[in-house]
Amino acid sequence: MDEPVDLPDGTEVELVPANGGDDLDDEDRARLHAAITRSADQFRAGRGIAAEEVLRGLGSGPTK
Description:
By secondary structure, the chain is mainly alpha-helical. The protein has a domain at 26-58. Helices cover 42% and strands 0% of the residues. It has helices at 26-44, 51-58. The protein is flat and about 55 Å long.
């Protein structure tokens, strides 16, 4: 939004998205939630991947 605002210097304001959400339809949102649930289940079952390993795979993490 490009609205003029007259606030004194140092005024704190809370910024929130103008649309308040995303553009997922019900089917996409259901797929997203299912993927998150599968991932959480895999993590709890010990099939997670350490963040360091993921970052190494991306070429931007710690190397050992």
